[in-house]
Amino acid sequence: METFKSKTEFIDEVETGVRAIFTAYMKNSSVPPATVFRLEGFIQAGCVLGIFTEDEAKKMIQSAWEVVFAQPFPDSATKSIMIPTMMQRAPVHPSTNA
After folding, report:
1. Neighbouring residues of 80: CB distance < 8 A, sequence distance ≥ 6
2. Cα–Cα distance for residue pair 25/6, rounded to 1 Å
3. Which of 40, 42, 73, 90 could form a disulfide with 62 if both were Cys (CB 3.0 to 4.6 A apart)?
4. Residues 24-50: tens digit of each pLDDT
């Protein structure tokens, strides 16, 4: 586990993690849900510890999205601290020939 010496290091870690997830999505790579949930929890901890506010956290996520995808942030993701997922759907094949 990493120890942060300053708020700036903590914020840098959040921004790097969010960008990494979005970059993986941009490359059509999958990201384990645990990775996303862990980072969301890390962000929530930053809010609880007073490192940034919930609004600042949402803006960090939104900013990373807009930089990586070059498109507007989804409105559905603005209501809470949430890292939107953007993965391709798995192919679905019928289980019977009916």
Report:
1. 58
2. 29
3. 73
4. 999 988 899 999 999 999 999 999 999
The model scores a pTM over 0.70: yes
Domain residue limits, the chain: 7-77
Q: Which of 37, 76, 23 has its CA nearest to residue 45?
A: 37
| 12-37 core/surface letters (b: 16 or more CB in 10 A; e: else) | eebeebbbebbebbeeeeebeeeebe
CA 89, chain centre distance (Å): 18
